[in-house]
Fold Fructose-1,6-bisphosphatase class 1.
Amino acid sequence: MSSNENPTLSISHELALDRDCTTLSRHVLQQLQSFGPNAQDLSALMNRIALAGKLIARRLSRAGLMEDALGFTGDVNVQGEAVKKMDLYANEVFISVFKQSGLVCRLASEEMETPYYIPENCPIGRYSLLYDPIDGSSNVDINLNVGSIFSIRQQTGDDPDQTGQDLLQDGHQQLAAGYILYGPSTVLVYSIGKGVHAFTLDPSLGEFILSEENIKIPRHGPVYSVNEGNFWQWDDALRDFTRYVHRHEGYTARYSGALVGDIHRILFQGGVFLYPGTLKNSQGKLRLLYESAPLAYLIEQAGGRASTGRQTLLDVVPTHLHARTPLIIGSQEDVELVESFIEERDRQHDEELIPTS
Ligand code: AHG
Ligand code: MN
Ligand code: MN
């Protein structure tokens, strides 16, 4: 034991947590300082998301011992990506958990081409849940971190053809957003527009307990997180940025192949995550409504910035349910640095277009 580890202190610290553990639903009500119907709704909605997280975490923790938990289903989803059994399981967990909630009228997810309606909930539950059931599914079969991403919006319009046209709104309209990270412990991070808070699942209680309140992302951090395998597929500006971090001290690369884990690191330690457009896909890979916008909402609430490179991410209005956008997200200064490289290349490009007399 090192000299600064005092066993008495650590025991009393744990006891203090035991006496005053704040659960997620209580925290939502405290945040809203209300027991009114909207506060009750949000508290109940967060509670259901927590339940989905617990069910998914439970399956993930034993997946290697179960038949039919890992591997591919053999199907391809609306994105053209091969579906994993865990993608399907987690997608269905959210559906069944919210069927019983009475509050959510429809769910839209990466794994479903059109929204899933729960007609019996619609007269009372005017909320929509948008989610990525398993984010980073390439990690799932090798027991590395994955996540779930969620966003809650109020249903504002009618959706006569049930394609989710009224969901095509900017990210400021989100009522709540966050993620669950399935790592060495399961952590739920959320915001309802009043800061960012993290809860850790205590498996012995079966409850998410407040572990970090009012998280603030550092204004600058050392990490840049990007798939450099795509280097030759990016615009010059992104290559300029990458060369800059290679040539300057104080930067380090971290990329796990799962957005939630990479963002979680940056939320606590600072830095920037990038998924820019590529030659193959000018809008990059990440989907706006249930990947980029919820994370942008969270990071902005923590004092950071999210951008497409040329536009604040939360201002983007998607053209369809599964629309993608380039994503540059993290510490204010680091995102601005990337944007400055893009601005400079755009300026040079504009100058080249002006005819010289
Ligand atoms: P999903 O598993 O939901 O399809 O998302 C995977 C995403 C994201 O988690 C990650 O940052 C990115 O895809 C990794 O993509 P590359 O393999 O192209 O780097
Ligand atoms: Mn994803
Ligand atoms: Mn996914």
